[in-house]
Amino acid sequence: MTWKSWLDDYYNLYQTNLVNPVIEERLVAFYDLCQGLRASGNKLMFAGNGASASIASHGAVDFTKQGRLRAIDFNEPNLITCLSNDYGYENFMAKAVEFYGDDGDALVLISVSGNSKNAVAAAKYAKSRGMKVVTFTGSAPDNQLRALSDIDFWIGSRAYNVVEGLHMIWMTTVVDMLVGKAEYSVT
């Protein structure tokens, strides 16, 4: 195997999954949801595990600062350990949504597998409250988060870095849609 061949195959995963009519439709749906949240004064709540937690934090910051839409994430170590200790790790995200979520808010969950128990529990709780759920997943098409989603961004791959990279691109695309352009000052 040559690196050229490997890189061609690797980047083909990005090229074949980055943009298609389904993704474009979901980008617009997520944008519309964000516009409604911004107009009503509601917020986006973000959560994920591992690298997906980092994507969640990045999303919360960019939607707030650039997108002018209030957004929070649940990555504070004290919050995670407190809620996990008292309610179990599988329930910490759901409890965070319970404590921080207001009627009319929306929840964004990021999980390559789409089957993280804590994210699934959070989605179920948010749905029980009537909140919209946006998911960014990968792997199997029948993953649990995707099934609970109002707007789902899914890539049928187990290539973690590719899936996470596409999740970040799709999420920040919606931020730029809220701004209305791709190039702008962030100060």
Automatic annotation (TrEMBL):
Q: Which UniProt keywords apply?
A: Isomerase
Name any one Pfam family assigned in the record. Answer: SIS_2
Q: Tell me, which GO biological process terms does this entry list?
A: carbohydrate derivative metabolic process
Which protein is depicted? D-sedoheptulose 7-phosphate isomerase
Q: Which InterPro entries match?
A: GmhA/DiaA, SIS_dom, SIS_dom_sf, SIS_GmhA/DiaA_subfam
Q: Name one GO molecular function term.
A: carbohydrate derivative binding
Q: Does the keyword Ion transport apply?
A: no
Q: Coiled-coil regions in this chain?
A: none
